[in-house]
Amino acid sequence: MENWKKTAVEAAQHKLRASKHKQAAMAAELQALKLQIDPHFIFNNLSVLSELILEDQQLGYDYSEKFARVYRYLLVNSKKDIIAVEEELNF
């Protein structure tokens, strides 16, 4: 009976460790995706900005202000895994 208890406890501990490893792997994957998207986001927006400046300086200025606001929001919230829908909609 004692052996059975010990084996059951060890199995439960193994499952817990496996679950923690899986969670850590998922968190690392999420962070890798965030880092991968960031350069594309900046590059694409700067490309748009440069075209807008050539067409209309005021429009380019307005775009750069909005871009800065969005990027600031992304930086502030980059550490969060979950953001409320209401907060996103308000932004």
- Taken as a percent bin, the fraction of beta residues is under 5%
Order of helices and strands: HHH
> Helix count, per DSSP?
3
Mean pLDDT: 89
End-to-end CA span: 60 Å
Helix share, percent: over 70%
Strand tally: 0
Write down the overall geometry.
Answer: rod-shaped
Task: Please tell me how large the radius of gyration is.
Answer: 23 Å
Structural class: mainly alpha
What profile does the largest beta sheet have? none
Unreliable spans are none
List keywords for this structure.
91 residues, mainly alpha, 3 helices, rod-shaped
How would you describe the overall organization of this protein?
It contains three helices and no strands. By secondary structure, the protein is an all-alpha fold. α1 packs antiparallel against α2. The chain is rod-shaped and about 80 Å long.
In short:
The protein has 91 residues and is an all-alpha fold.
List the helices and strands and how they pair.
Blueprint: H1 2-55, H2 57-77, H3 85-90
Helix pairs in contact: 1-2
